[in-house]
Amino acid sequence: MDSGKTTDLRDGRLFLPNRTVLLADPVRIRLAAYLDYRNRCWPRTANPHLFVSQTTGCGVEPVSHVWINDVLGMPTSRLREDRLLHEAEAIGGDPLRICDLFGLSVGAALRYTGTIDQPGPIEHSLRNVGPAPRPGPE
């Protein structure tokens, strides 16, 4: 998304090269707030990219992956994976919906949706604990 442009956003949609993503209302609200902030900080910028920084606000180049990771506090790949897993659980494991939302192949979507019934590490250890041992006669 570092090379995304403000012109890719219109009519509540994100227009990507191979697909169009309908943006949910909470996303639209946050995006509008960010664009207001962007316009206040760089009112005369010619930079067409969605994200601008103090360095790129005076030019037309995109921000770097390093800048995005620093701002988010984590790699974008981890954020995407988190969103994929959350959405897979929220929609009950429908792989076709994951394909539509994230532009994944069916195989990739099945890898994510296949995790929703898997217990986490704590649940796994709690489920696999047998009955408490009985104290023996002393």
TrEMBL record:
Highest taxon of the lineage: Bacteria
Protein name: Uncharacterized protein
Source species taxonomy: Bacteria, Bacillati, Actinomycetota, Actinomycetes, Kitasatosporales
